[in-house]
Amino acid sequence: MSISKAEVVKVAHLARLAIPEERLEGYTHTISDILDLVALMNAVNTDGVLPLSNPLDAVQLLREDVVTETNQRELYQSVAPRVEDGLYLVPKVIE
Amino acid sequence: MTVATQGDLSTLTSKELHHKIVNGDISVMELVEIFLQRIEKYDPQLNAYITVVQDQARTQAIAIDNKIRSGELNHPLAGVPYTLKDLFCTKGILTSCGSKMLSNFISPYDATVYDKLNHAGAVLLGKVNMDEFAMGSSNENSFYGAVANPWDITRVPGGSSGGSAAAVAAGLAPYSLGSDTGGSVRQPASYCGISSIKPTYGRISRYGMTAFASSLDQCGVMARSAEDMALVLHAISGFDVRDSTSANVPVPNYSESLNDSLAGLRIGIPKEFFADGLDANVAKVIREAIQEFEKLGATVKEVSLPNSHLSVAAYYVIAPAEASANLARFDGVRFGYSCNDPKNLQDLYERSRWEGFGDEVKRRIVIGTYALSSGYYDAYYLQAQKIRRLIKNDFVAVFNEVDVLMGPVTPTTAFKIGEKSDDPIAMYLGDIYTLPISLAGVPALSIPVGFSDNLPVGLQIIGDYFNEAKLLNVAHSYQQVTDWHRQSPSQFSGV
């Protein structure tokens, strides 16, 4: 196995996924298989090769720092699960 | 198995349908009704549609009929119906991305491509099925169920734009917009015997197209001919201030160069695309298709893309890494699925995401998070990006020698539903011929060029950056001397 169950639990937590105990074995197995597949890359010498993050090697566009969007809070909150007085509701954070 | 189809409206191209509308042979309203009836009759066998917008389509049809009659609208796509893959945002209409996570999501805004087609007078019929968040190669990873291939309903239509491909192939829409991150328009088009193009990265605005892997995602056109693809691509391409990765490169009128001569065209055949793993019958059909181009005056030579075998490995690091970041926005708070009775904020996040996403999406989020995590970043993500550069360099070098590349889209024809659903690795390896193109960001199209055991086979034609016009010219020339693109599955023929 290229990855342990404990590591899968840790990474799933980092990704905010509550992986149930009974699914852990299966997930670990498949993820391990995928990591074995991508391990093919390890044998390639890439010394001096620049990483490619945008296929056109484009750089971030800049624009004037002026307001271009109007406030549409109500519209955007209309698709939220729980809202009250313009605020998103979440479980209590501070006891 | 196949039928000659000239008389049946559902098998006409978008260009032909538009001519019929303009000539007064049929109204937009009548045409829309025909497609709505066909969807009602045939879609239960296919499951291509997630949402059909009957009322909106009828209202739009009346308005467009009037505008065409008054001369206010003369766009070549005016009045022609179409569908959108269910990841394009459409105000007031469900945009599910094939996921439970967004099964209640009504977008508050429109995608740029939808906005552009609305201005052209195109009529949306509905939103079509897909692998969840565009992750998959079979359309089996959808919260809304698998889609069937119209050529054999026990087989997959391909993915992730499987609903788009099935709908066009079965005559339930003349064309559809899909998205292609690693082959998601080319592979389903190949499996379903239709034409498709994934343009250069950045050619079309991604604004309002739900992100999977932002450095790879590109909207693609799925249609009945190269000529139709030229019309649609022209209508939706171009720079958009709302997508900073869209390219500020002029958009040519693709229809103008469709009939250019192919005399002297230099075709390269990447030897890696014909190595072990390619089905012998598929290889035969592909080689016969390439001979057809020689008859049209092209020359053929073998070339090499020496790093293409690394594509699967690099892609299945880069795409999940970007997906893990993009899908972090689904938190159960602002929109989308939210779990019941969360114990605390942590529980709200973790359970909403676990319950809202399907298994393939969650696997990729975990892989991506792992590849980006401290201690593994260099070995996985950075190494994959360096290999991506090597793959791009292969294409840059080869386009000094040839004008286009040709090869298969997939190693086999469409496989059975369920055949690979428990084996993600087997599914990933099927993307071997489409991934190098996506990683390099070059344009490629697929066109039907024959059958193997009664299942369609697609030819992939790959071009240099922003050379979509050449690809469409090459594909159109082939479609002028062959009729594979006019074949339709007999089970869905008739109005």
List keywords for this structure.
heterodimer; A: 95 residues; two-stranded antiparallel ribbon; flat; B: Amidase signature (AS) enzymes; eleven-stranded mixed beta sheet
Please, could you describe this protein's structure?
The complex is a heterodimer of chains A (about 100) and B (about 500). By secondary structure, chain A is mainly alpha-helical. Chain A has a domain at about 5-40. Helices cover about 35% and strands about 5% of the residues of chain A. Chain A has 3 helices and 2 strands. A two-stranded antiparallel ribbon of chain A has the order 1-2. In chain A, a hairpin with a 2-residue loop joins β1 and β2 (about 85-90). The longest helix of chain A has 18 residues, at about 20-40. The model of chain A has no long low-confidence stretch (mean pLDDT about 95). Chain B is of the alpha/beta class and about 500 residues long. Chain B has a domain at about 1-260 and about 470-490: Amidase signature (AS) enzymes. In chain B, strands 2-4-3-5-7-6-11-12-10-8-9 form an 11-stranded mixed sheet, with helices on both faces. Chain B has a two-stranded antiparallel sheet with strand order 1-13. In chain B, β8, α8 (about 280-295) and β9 form a beta-alpha-beta unit. Chain B is globular, with a radius of gyration of 21 Å. In chain B, about 65% of the residues are buried.
